[in-house]
Structures are given as C-alpha cells and as structure tokens.
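re: that chain from earlier
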Amino acid sequence: MGVARFLAFLALPVVVVSACGGEPFDASAAGGAAGQDGGTGAGGGSGGDCASDEKFCAGKCVKQADPAFGCDVDGCNPCALQHALSACQGGACTVAKCDANWGDCSSEPGCETDLRRPETCGDCNTKCDKVCSNGQCADSCGGGETDCNGTCTDTASDPQHCGGCGKACEAPPSSTATCQAGNCGFQCKAPYEDCDGVGENGCEADTNNDVQNCSACGVSCATPPQGAVGEVCNGGQCGCAGARTSCSVSGGAACVNQNNDPQFCGSCNNACNHGQICSSKSCATPNCAAGLLQCEGKCVNLDTDPAHCGNCQTTCGALQTCIAGTCVPATSCAGAATCASTSTIGATCTDASTDAANCGTCGKLCAPGEACIGSSCTPAQFVAEPWECTNADTACVLPILYPAKMYCAPKCPP
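^ sequence. v structure.
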C-alpha cells in the first residue's frame, strides 16, 4: 500500500461493534516463522516481542543485563572475565566473585592475580620474604607441599601446577579448571552445564536461557508449530516474551497475543466463530466484509471502487477506472470482471472470485465478517498469524485499518 493511500486511510471512520472496542491490530504481536521472527530452534520472539528489559540474541529474548550475552543494550557477546564469575553493572561486565585463590588486583576487569604467590599472599598487598603457604607467609612449605617458586602447593590437585610446577590447566568456556590426581579437568560455573559432553567447548549450555536445556540438561521448552513464535527460557523457566501467552497446540505450544488473536481470544481455549474478529480479548463481528472499509456508511473496496479509489474522498472520472487504489485511464479489464460505469464514473475492474463488494457477480456485497472465497460469500476465518491457517489455505492480508490482520482462503485478492 502506497504512502498516499495509507495517509488517506487514517481519515476513514472504520468502527466495529461496541463489543469489539474498535481496537486496531497490534503489529508488535504479529508472529513469524522461526527462522524469521521466531529465532532459531524452539526459541521465539523478534526484537519487537521482547520485553523492555530484554534484547534479542541467539534466536531468543534474553535480559539486557545477562553476562551470558554481554551487559549492554544491543550487544550479544558474553562477558569473559578471567578467573571470575561475571555480573552486569551500568551496562558493563564486572566481577561478581573471584574464583578461589584469585584476586582482582588491577584496574583491568577480571581476577588476574594468584593469591598463593609470595608477591600476593592471601591478598593483593601482602608480600612474603620466602614462601606463601595456604595464603600465609612462611619460612618453608609444609608436608605434602611442593615449593613452586615460592608458592606452596599440592601438585596432585592444583590446577596451576597440575602434576608438576608450572603445568597449568586450561579452563574451557564458562568453567573453572580442576586438577585431580595430577590430571586436568574442569567444573562448570552455574548456570552453565556441559550438556553435549564435548570438553573442548566447555560448559556450552546456559540453563537460564537455553530453550533446549532450560533449568537442566535435556529439559526443553515446548516446540512451536512451523512459523509460530515459541517459548523462551528465562531464568530457567519456559515461557513467552513480552505480552504473549503460551497456549498448547498440536505437537507443542505457541506464544500468542490473546488480546487480538481470534483463535485464542482472551484465553487459550476461546476461538472466535468464523466471521468474528478479536479485540480487547472479546469476539465481535466487524462492520464490513473482509477487505472492505466504511465510506459514508457504505462498505467499499478501496482498491477497485472508482467512486472511492484509494480513499473515501477520491472519485475517478468517467474515462478512468480504479486499479490498486489509483485512478488510471480506462482500458479493458484484461480478463477481470467489468462492472457497469455511469456517465460520471468509470467501470469497475474486479476479480469476482475474491472481491467482497462484487462477489461472484457485480454488486453482490458480502455481509460483515464474510469473505469472498471462490465467488461465494463465506464467513471468514480471521487469524492473527499466518501459521494459524490450515488445510493448505493462505493467509490473506487485510487493509491496515480493518480490525483484523488477515483471514484464511485458498486464493487471496490480487
């Protein structure tokens, strides 16, 4: 729809019956395919679906202040502070807690200082003359300890000296290095877990945000139908982002907007009858058939009506017709139905199989809530999202000011 037509629509007196409340469609509630709006995997939600304190990362809505996805409003790179549990403060990664025996002794983020060394024994400011043993200065190392350049340690369990002095273990992502019997290993940092068993990538699953491993490895959020917005994992709990609600559907669950979805109007189990739209969580019948808008108390097709071409105020001339909401010089209708002209208004070119103002024959006006399907006026199945159309139907998009977004039909108007 062109800009001029959109601006003209803003002046149209489109109203539904009082039970509907006249609420326009909430564009932010529109769904999409998992690879488009819904993200990857079973996650869902486009950026517009995320709450005000969330952002869209890795195909799902996550908290803006989540160290697993960075701490700024837009970025998604995880915090990676050395030897520390990360937190967010003022939009930046900061140290929540240093790992055991490590200290934050510089202006650089992270806990980079080994507090068992004689230069920093037990804290950042204590320097020993000889050796550091268990965070205390001493003259020599005790029994069972090895002196590694002034650091007294057990090389059978020390990740920095595992199996011998200077043999440091490397910690894979989101983990802490461990040493057992002189052999390196790692331990996951909560809420991360090693769910795939691949040591090289460490603890890859954030059980606070991973829809496949939500709260624990293998605990998956419900799978949405193809094209539907799915649940996200937030704080280890499966649920929907933003104003959406999770409703059970065939094979899983979908996150829907119960405020304006005719298939889930006000609750998961309340589907409006065909011919009804949903507004403010209530089912109601619109004032016009699908695709028609009100002008001067009449329901008209602004795409094809030469008396109301593109908006209520524009009338085409006697030698013009209305195509796609624009007055153009009259020519043959190129296979489309030709409806009568007058001395002042040109002929109407229309597809009588889909035009609710000329359904099957010129002048046949479908009733409010009906759609012209196969040249017959039929109660429309209004939907909020394309995936809700079944039986090989297509989601036909309605005019901007129509109080529903789309309806299902085998063929949509041109």
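The two ends are 12 Å apart (CA to CA).
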